[in-house]
Amino acid sequence: MRPLKTLSIHEILFLLAHRWLRRSRLATAGMILAVISLTIGQAESSAEVEYSPSQGRWAWTGAVTTDAAVIKGGGAVDASPDLLVSEDPDFENTLRVEATTSLDASRLGRAGAYRLEGLRPDTHYFYRWADLPEETKPFGRFRTMPRGEASFTFAFASCASTGSNSPVFDAIRQHQPLFFLHTGDLHYEDIAENRVERFYDAFARVLLASPRQNLFFRDLQVPYMWDDHDYGPNDSDIRAPGREAALESYRAVVPHYPFFHRDSDPLQPVGQAFSVGRVRFLIPDLRSRRTHNGLEDGPEKTMMGPEQLRWFLDELREAQGKYALTVFVSGVPWIDSSNRPDSWAEYAYERSRISNFMVEHGIDRVIMLAGDSHMVAGDDGSNNTFADDGIGPGFPVFHAAALHRRGSTKGGPYSHGTFPGSGRYGVVQVEDRGDSIRIIFEGRHFEEGVLLRMEHLFEVDPE
Ligand SMILES: [Fe+2]
User: How far does the centroid of ligand 1 lie from the alpha carbon of residue 423, in Å?
Assistant: First the structure.
């Protein structure tokens, strides 16, 4: 049930304002209505949820759209139990969902995949395990994506030591973001062996062994793209010995959006895209198809691989016409004028190819979210000049890391400075105003609060 007390007060206020509006037709009454509606929205979204205990189980929600979601989860059970799903945290009306796939995933236990369809946009859903009837509290929740012009808040960051139980995960949940975008280094196992169990065990240390992360993944939907340490060894690429196993474990455990290639070749990269309101998120896989850092730079040297790059450029061009904003997610620093290996500096040919493409096609409503370097940092675009014209592509770049890892500074220069250290994450507010879209980025520390705040306004041309 909804919090009756809160709602009834709001409803009374709403009705009174509505009557007043009908009688007086004053513009101010309309404003009061808007404020009350907003308050109702906030009251619903900020509702604290009391979850059932973990009991050795885990869940991870992803691939959320306006009307669908995928939950992967399980634990120490012989067969994947059904999930009960409801809009109501008291589970008055429930939908029973069976696992579509179920596999034995080493220390993760049994991992089931649950596909939820026919959902309503911008709506909270709660779920619990059907085989634990005594547990009536939700095990987890998520919120479907809004449709059309919509304002929303999300969080992002990378880099946490394996199985970290840092309070940073609680701090992020406090913001109640629509989702948390994990930009890599989910763990630091540096697996250099082609055994999928090693990857399942690494996931288990994150999703099961850490109480705070266990709850984090049940409370927030988490789109995720790996970086080097959770895909393979430090600075890893296509030659990583565990590549095949890494890709297999990603497909099995991560609730992901459709891959860009739409085929079933298990060795294709796991790059993907998704939409929220009028914002398009592009999360290419910059590891599993990446050629060797030590190669001489040129057309053969690539982070994305030719097929993924083609898809990525098509997405950029299409999004400029179809969406108000494109978010380019890069695990590694983009702005880097050094010749340090692993960042885009050593893949400068591909970086300028993307930059020139953006200039050529007038793609000018883009931001980047970046990770890898253990710092909060920001650039307003003034140092993002990798196109041949010496000005473009000029999109702003926001860095947020490390969740829980010692600090480091990479790349730059950054117009708004660097704030290296641990306990860091980014919160991004997207305000869609129809003819413009405003982005507010806050790089935060879980105790110190805001370290860096940046705003950027994009004009959206009428179609
Ligand atoms: Fe890292």
Answer: 13
